[in-house]
Amino acid sequence: MSLVTVGSVAFDAIETPFGKTDKIIGGAGTYIAISSSYFVDKQNIIAVIGDDFPKEMIDKLESKGVNLEGLQIKKGEKSFFWSGKYANDMNSRETLVTELNVLGDFDPIVPDSYQECDYLMLGNLSPEVQLKVIQRLNNRPKLVALDTMNFWMETAMDDLKKALKKVDIIIINDEEARQLSGEFSLVNAAKAIQKMGPKHLIIKKGEHGALLFHESNNVFFAPALPLAEVFDPTGAGDTFAGGFMGYLASTEDISFENMKRAVIIGSAMASFCVEKFGIERIENLTVDEIKDRIAEFVDLTDFDMHHAI
Amino acid sequence: MSLVTVGSVAFDAIETPFGKTDKIIGGAGTYIAISSSYFVDKQNIIAVIGDDFPKEMIDKLESKGVNLEGLQIKKGEKSFFWSGKYANDMNSRETLVTELNVLGDFDPIVPDSYQECDYLMLGNLSPEVQLKVIQRLNNRPKLVALDTMNFWMETAMDDLKKALKKVDIIIINDEEARQLSGEFSLVNAAKAIQKMGPKHLIIKKGEHGALLFHESNNVFFAPALPLAEVFDPTGAGDTFAGGFMGYLASTEDISFENMKRAVIIGSAMASFCVEKFGIERIENLTVDEIKDRIAEFVDLTDFDMHHAI
Predict the structure, then answer these.
(1) Which of A265, A258, A238, A264 is nearest to A142 (CA)?
(2) Burial grade of A21 (CB within 10 A; 0-12, 13-18, 19 or more)
(3) Does the beta-carbon distance from A228 to B257 stay under 8 Å?
(4) CB-based contact A308 B265, cutoff 8 Å
(5) Which CATH superfamily is domain A3-300 in?
């Protein structure tokens, strides 16, 4: 069925130990839309850009089947820009530049054609914007997912807590889960966060995989593909969310069994993302490449304990 | 078939955020022997203790079916003693006291009754002692596994490299793999270490599970059980090694498929170990407890991608 994504569509400039880019296309909304496009037919984006954003890129999103009615283009204004530099171990990054530009006063518009949406992905944006999108949908979607980050916990915790009460699943990384809950153990962090609202929780652990907590008593441990080199981690989390939500929206099944599949698909999509700068690796994948990658994930954790002891 | 383990049988004093012990029984050899005892019938230990070691504990090992002919008891000398304190996050520990005592000039004896051993576990000890045990076996075992630590990389790298040439599998943690190889990426670290000798490699990542690299092209990602609280991590790595080698020795099958099972069994045993201080949790397990725990590991990673995309 249909997926609505709200998230930034923006410019990034990235420096990693492997190289450096000029301004390239980035933003959570971009990664989520491209990644989910391999799974769901009807998807719709809510975002804002300036008139500096390249026409080819807008066409590219359209060619991927993304409905852009909710994409506002602000005349004479500039798109959001982020620039960052990764440490040698790729596990930490320094923000060099953040120019909010059009995101500074983003007032999300939900077009009529988005109103029947069943799946809603609230990409990492201010909780205020995330709340507005929920409020502006006439009917509650079947599944609402939210991503956030430490910055919002530090500057907008009240709004974030309001938003959490209205979502079904939160998708964050391990450090964010610890900060949000005040608990070091991820099991205790998950319990604490589930009490804040979301029934389900995904904790992304980068090279260590991801944990899915589905309702109160189901846990799934998803692997990450052991990679020789992570070229550029930017957007990996959003690409994960896009694969995850795109698959759920296409199958219309939010059971534990199907969410496990969705986590594997999200992980497979993220494993492509880190292989090149920006969206380069994920913008032109073939179905066979995706199938082969998923098969690698199956092999990676497959074992048979039958009659072992 | 038979397993020979060389490793310390010693005293520990442990402080964690949950409590503090007096001198309790510890040592790599102790954990490995107890853990493997649930799987292999014939096992044999090579170790040295002082006459301060409690008779009940020697009896306990004997009651577990451990052949103690290779256990030297030094009159008038003291057993190895280690004392350490864990940080609040349990991810780092500080060594408070190390008294080598009898381990200082440990000359391992390999009794005739051990000579037909098929499986050899070289617990974390000086590479010189590990090499002596290999040399003193008349026939090369079917599988030789080695554990080591950063201390030996810093003080005895030449001997460690000699030992690595003679072993089939090395079992170390992620930081040790990085230090030994000089590579940050664990995939590259594994390749570099395999060139040093061992065909197989297990990298233990604590709460993030373990990676098995079997020969040059097989990789398995084993989960760790998400635990609300890790009470005391002391001995978890040795308990893993004991379950792993005990299962391999009992099944006499070192194929990739069976090593995957052995990794899951080692992980299950380690997950018990951390629940209480020292050997308290692993010394009296029932077969049903172990079976149930293994079933939890199966559930944790089980998914079915059939016809997913």
Answers:
(1) A258
(2) middle
(3) no
(4) yes
(5) Ribokinase (3.40.1190.20)
Question: How close B74 comes to chain A (CA, Å)?
Answer: 38
For B190-233, the pLDDT digits (tens) are 999 999 999 999 999 999 999 999 998 899 999 999 998 889 99
Closest to B239 (Cα-Cα) out of B201, B206, B213: B206
Q: What is the pLDDT of residues A41-67, one digit of tens each?
A: 889 999 999 999 999 999 999 999 999
- Look up residue A205 and give its DSSP letter: -
Rounded CA gap, A196 and B223, in Å? 27
Closest residue in A to B289 (Cα–Cα): A309
Task: Using a cut of 0.90, tell me whether the model's pTM lies above it.
Answer: yes
Burial class (CB in 10 A: 0-12, 13-18, 19+), B162: middle
> Across the interface, do B88 and A184 touch by the CB < 8 Å criterion?
yes
Domain chopping of chain A, boundaries? 3-300
Element (H, E) at B97: strand B93-99
In whole angstroms, give the CA distance from residue A116 to residue A138.
8
CA distance B266 to chain A (A): 13
A208: nearest CB among B191, B205, B301: B205
B221–A219: do the CB atoms touch at under 8 Å?
Answer: no
